[in-house]
Write a structure and sequence with these properties.
Helix 3 packs antiparallel against helix 21. The chain is of the alpha/beta class. It has 2 domains: 265 residues, no CATH class; 351 residues, Alpha-Beta Complex (Spore Coat Polysaccharide Biosynthesis Protein SpsA, Chain A), CATH 3.90.550. It is globular, with a radius of gyration of 28 Å. Strands 5-6-4-3-7-10-9-11 form an 8-stranded mixed sheet, with helices on both faces. Helices cover 51% and strands 7% of the residues. This is Cellulose synthase-like protein H1.
């Protein structure tokens, strides 16, 4: 046995990525930041500096801290290479996988989007008998259920077709968007007939789904959707439907994974905990139906782009001598049909390649909420075998029935399935007949099932933040588990990035709100680093993201210094004739060249860098600022957090064609009357006014004796912000959705007037 194990080739390789030149650049920027702080401190101590220099010093000290946190996250990058072809020797070791898809609103997340994601998962290269797909519909939509039922029938044709012809991307809307068979000249007559017939069937499927009427579905004679009659989105009983049962219909070589639809019970008197609550219901329902030891979760728009994605993930889950190294496997988020040059700064390619690879070299990549493979026992709160606590406890893997009941609830079936998973039985036989356990599944999905249990705290997805994903991953890391990053070619999963101003800023605001909630809670990473097993550098890595909303007040303050100085005839930067001017000048150029080179190394254009740079300024002054204020009001008990669903649009993989069909300028910023646009609109107006006033004063009065007024630095700062806020400059004179609404303009104008009055009084 030992000799056989030696002959097995490794399933994965951990490859450190050297970055000596980038480390030198990091240190160069840090040196300039420290020099700027020293220069300001000396000037303030000597009493020669204006009062606004103190505000500048505080902000620049904060920027230095942020830079140090980013340096920590970037300094130890690694990449994991996987070898799925070597799994052919270990077919018997492959564990079952339960795949979870979540959707919440049939209008913002159209059923056809969900259907394509489900079909791509059903067709992955993995034994069908070891797969089951669960779809959680928090919108309780008969149209979504109907679409999935139709998809299950279409899958009987689609899955065999994909496997027979070796289809690459198995989301039908992507596959057929090319307009012709992808096998080119190698396509024979039989394949062409199959391709044409399959495309015709898919078009019929699309037509049926898009033309489905919810009212007709609920009232039609066969009663298949009668359970939806009278159901309200936030007040209804559990609805579970087995749309396809693999155990009853498997055929050799052409099996189709089981497909189960779930709309969990919701009642007004019980908090449903948004997506985290839906994920916990999926975990419990799947536990009593199929109980796979591995769980994959994806958002409804995140289709499987690589047909071997599950095999690649298994290389990381099975490829370490100690499973502590792969508590979960996270794939980076990548997007199809993306606009050229990332005009809304939400494709996050550089973020994943720079920060993501670096954090993967610490305790592991963060859980991103989609495209992630979990060990079920890790989600259940189990600790690694190699981690020991000081306090005495029962023998690992053998908790008592009473202990399990307290943690997991009163369901006997759930407790038994939990016991088998915690004991490490990864190859346990699945339930023979799924349909026979639907009543048990409804019991564990009841809205009051979690009362008195550890769900949402020590077990399952963690409650307390709208960013339940990163909070759950942090809890896993704090128990001692590590995680790995699944970076493969073609990419594992592809999703849709929101476009337009409202959708992009809404997404950033939701993320920032949840991150600050974590930072101010008992789940603060510093506490977990001190009292649990979260590594200190990993703790600092989490802080890179948790401080997003905290950055807003500092960056807003710094952005206001330029206009204030031009309006109040002061300065917060050294004059061009002074020796100290070289420090902020060098920092400005070095910082921007550094990030431009990062984008160049990631094979992105200078325009992509500029778009992301300006969006950073816009997001900080809008979404992050409102998130900061939202959490502040919540902390004071004056408001509650609201979960905002981002619209999911399904274009074609061609970014230009996909977005230009119905929109003359898809990369142009759009606006609505949301408060999120008010701060940036006010800053745009303020900087324009400040430049005009400063230029008029300089022309009319000249340079004052002694040079006490603003210099070239203040003009550059205001001019740079006007360039960053150029979409809002266009919005001030734009029309329709491209124009800023008058309600936003008026509110922003009042803020500008208040600031002008303040400048006159100070």
């Amino acid at each position: 046995m030992a000799s056989t194990k030696k002959l097995q080739l490794p399933l994965q390789e951990r490859v450190p990525l050297g970055r000596p030149a980038w480390k030198l650049a990091d240190l160069a920027v840090l040196s300039l930041l420290l020099a700027l702080l020293a220069s300001r401190t000396v000037s303030l101590a000597s009493g020669d500096a204006p009062p606004c220099w103190l505000a500048a010093l505080v902000c620049e000290a904060w920027f230095t801290l942020v830079w140090l946190l980013n340096m920590n996250a970037k300094w130890s990058p690694v990449l994991f290479h996987t070898h799925p072809e070597r799994l052919s020797e270990r077919t018997g070791e492959l564990p079952a996988v339960d795949m979870f898809v979540t959707t919440a609103d049939p209008k913002l997340e159209p059923p056809l989007v969900t259907v394509n994601t489900v079909l791509s998962l059903l067709a992955v290269d993995y034994p069908a008998g070891k797969l089951a797909c669960y779809v959680s519909d928090d919108g309780c939509s008969p149209a979504t259920c109907y679409a999935l039922r139709e998809a299950a029938e279409f899958a009987r044709l689609w899955v065999p077709f994909c496997r027979r012809h070796g289809v690459g991307t198995r989301a039908p809307f992507v596959y057929f968007a090319s307009g012709g068979p992808e096998r080119g000249e190698a396509a024979d007559g039989e394949f062409l007939r199959d391709w044409t017939g399959m495309k015709s069937e898919y078009e019929k499927l699309v037509s049926r789904i898009e033309n489905a009427d919810e009212g007709f579905l609920v009232r039609r004679g066969d009663g298949e959707f009668a359970e939806f009659l009278g159901a309200e989105r936030r007040n209804h009983s559990t609805i579970i439907k087995v749309l396809w049962d693999n155990s009853k219909s498997i055929r050799a070589g052409e099996g189709i994974p089981s497909l189960i639809y779930i709309s969990r019970e919701k009642r007004p008197k019980h908090h449903h905990h948004f997506k985290a609550g839906a994920m916990n219901v999926l975990t419990r329902v799947s536990a009593v139906l199929t109980n796979a030891p591995i769980m994959l979760n994806v958002d409804c728009d995140m289709f499987a782009n690589n047909s071997e994605v599950v095999l690649h993930a298994m290389c990381l889950l099975l490829g370490f001598d100690d499973e502590v190294h792969s508590g979960f496997v996270q794939a980076p988020q990548k997007f199809y049909g993306a606009l050229n040059d990332d005009p809304f700064g939400n494709q996050m390619e550089v973020l994943f390649k720079k920060l993501g690879f670096g954090i993967a070299g610490l305790q592991g990549m963060f859980y991103g909420g989609t495209g992630c493979f979990h060990r079920r026992k890790v989600i259940y709160g189990s600790t690694p075998d190699s981690i020991t606590d000081d306090k005495p406890r029962r023998t690992k893997g053998s908790p008592s029935y009473k202990e399990l009941q307290v943690k997991f609830g009163i369901s006997k079936e759930l407790i038994e399935s939990t016991r088998s998973v915690i004991s490490g039985d990864v190859l346990a036989a699945p339930v023979a007949d799924i349909s026979s356990r639907l009543e048990v599944a409804k019991e564990v999905s009841a809205s009051n099932y979690e009362i008195g249990t550890c769900w949402g705290q020590e077990v399952g997805w963690v409650y307390g933040s709208v960013t339940e994903d990163i909070l759950t991953g942090q809890r896993i890391h704090s128990t001692g588990w590590r995680s790995t990053l699944l970076e493969i070619d073609p990419p594992a999963f592809m999703g849709s990035a929101p476009t337009g101003g409202p959708a992009s800023l809404t997404q950033y605001k939701r993320w920032a709100t949840g991150l600050l909630e974590i930072l101010l809670s008992r789940n603060n990473p510093f506490l977990l680093s001190i009292f649990k097993h979260l590594g200190f550098r990993q703790c600092l890595g989490y802080l890179v993201f948790y401080i997003w909303p905290v950055r807003a007040p500092f960056e807003l303050c710094y952005a206001l210094l330029g206009p204030y100085c031009l309006l109040a005839n002061q300065s917060f930067l050294p004059k061009a004739s002074e020796p100290g001017f070289i420090i902020p000048l060098a920092l400005f150029f070095t910082f921007n060249i550094y990030y431009l080179m990062e984008y160049t190394e990631c094979r992105l254009s200078a325009r992509a860098w500029w778009n992301n740079h300006r969006m950073q300024r816009i997001v900080s002054s809008s979404a992050w600022l409102l998130a900061f204020l939202t959490v502040l009001l919540k902390t004071l008990g004056l408001s509650e957090t609201v979960f905002e669903v981002t619209r999911k649009d399904q274009g074609t993989p061609d970014g230009d064609d996909a977005n230009s069909a119905g929109d003359a300028d898809p990369g142009r910023f759009t606006f609505d009357s949301s408060p999120v646009f008010i701060p940036v609109t006010a800053l745009t107006m303020l900087n324009i006014v400040a430049v005009a006033v400063g230029a008029w004063r300089a022309a009319a009065e000249g340079v004052p004796p002694g040079g006490g007024g603003p210099g070239v630095g203040e003009f550059v700062c205001c001019g740079w912000l006007v360039l960053c806020f150029w979409p809002f400059v266009r919005g001030l004179v734009g029309k329709g959705s491209y124009g800023i609404p008058w309600s936003v303009k008026l509110t922003a104008g009042l803020l500008v007037v208040a600031f002008l009055h303040l400048c006159r009084r100070i």
